[in-house]
Input
Amino acid sequence: MHICRLNNLLLCIFMILPMTLLTQHNTDESLVPEYDLPALLTDSHGKQISEATTWEEHRRSEILSIFEQEVYGIPPLEEIAVEVSEKVLERMAFHGKATIREITFTFTNNGKRLDAVLLLVLPNSPDPAAVFLGYNFGGNHTILPDESIQLPKGWVLGGPQIGAFDHKASVVSRGAKYSRWPVLNMLARGYGLATMHYGDIDPDFDDDFKNGIHALFSNSEHIKNGNWGALATWSWGLSKIMDYFETNPLINHEKITLLGHSRLGKAALWAGALDKRFAIVISNNSGCGGAALSKRRFGETVAAINKNFPHWFCKNFEKYNENESAMPFDQHQLLALMAPRPLYIASAQNDSWADPKGEFLSLKHASAVYALYHPNSTISGELPEVNRPLIQGKLGYHIRTGNHDVTPYDWEQFMNFTDQHFANGN
Ligand code: GTR
Output
């Protein structure tokens, strides 16, 4: 079998494994419990919100702080030093179409240091480029076969399935994930790509909030107590990358599309909620703790995600294990925090663990906030048919055939959506 196909097969098994280990999860629509979604447009004093200004000045921050307190955790207030160094790897990549660079971010604090490497592919054009930004799972070297791209020096997601042995990256996986990052198509449409290995910011295992960027905040009681989970650190890293974009004249920092798949889709949504500089936000198969409504208890539940990944969220989120009905929030409110910026949610038909219908309903309910800005962004129908993208004003959704993954089909829709919004001036 071809090595990439073998990799993909094993990767699917690896991703699916946690689900099969959990016996009690529902994927039967008729067993979804009755649930009440917390109101989006009624504030904590029972006041109705009917204008975009009141949403923005008042209700939005109420919801944001619920998610900080109860789900992802409060970011540290302490500012840490960041130094950025750029290295050109290739000026005439893709037959002269693009330049490939590595940007190293060096974070220092409390005598500790962390390096994180961004791979940046920009079109060779005189105009500042619009850029897709997203974390990758296996290392920057998995995106392109180019031998000058360095391997992550630290922890990577384990397993021979992604060419990583003992949580160390290896050359075996160079270029193995190109299908998830169709750089040539992006360049053909004038876009650049910026991607970083997520483990550079925070390794994805439970070590009691000591490793990665957490270590640089080790004087903070707040961090030590587990109040800033890994998803929030990854989101924090995305904002640091955005700070850098603002200093680079080759990048049009007003045209950054932030996207993420699965756990990295959850991180992208939280980053998009906290940081309004991201012009467009895209979530691919982000599921529980991402786009999907938790109260449906379909596929992955709050208890399951906290059990398998105790380091992802803040400690308060555990209050809702087997107790979703007590949640004073749900994920439609997270999606609404992107308003009025364009937002695209993508699901996959076989990805019941991520609850495609719950992802769609979440977007549909969030559209009530978008409607305060643009009435044509209201979503009122049912789950669209597979492979029939729904574009409604600033909102987009598709459910495609196939498994939990990012495919060329997904990218085609993401680029169409981004083209449309950037051409319209946003
Ligand atoms: C699964 C996890 C999901 C999703 C996925 C991924 O094991 O249960 O929430 O995030 O991993 O990131 O691929």
Residues 15, 18, 262-263, 287-288, 300, 305, 308 surround beta-D-galactopyranuronic acid (CB under 6 Å). The domain at 3-78+125-423 is CATH 3.40.50.1820 (Rossmann fold). Confidence is low (pLDDT under 50) at residues 1-23.
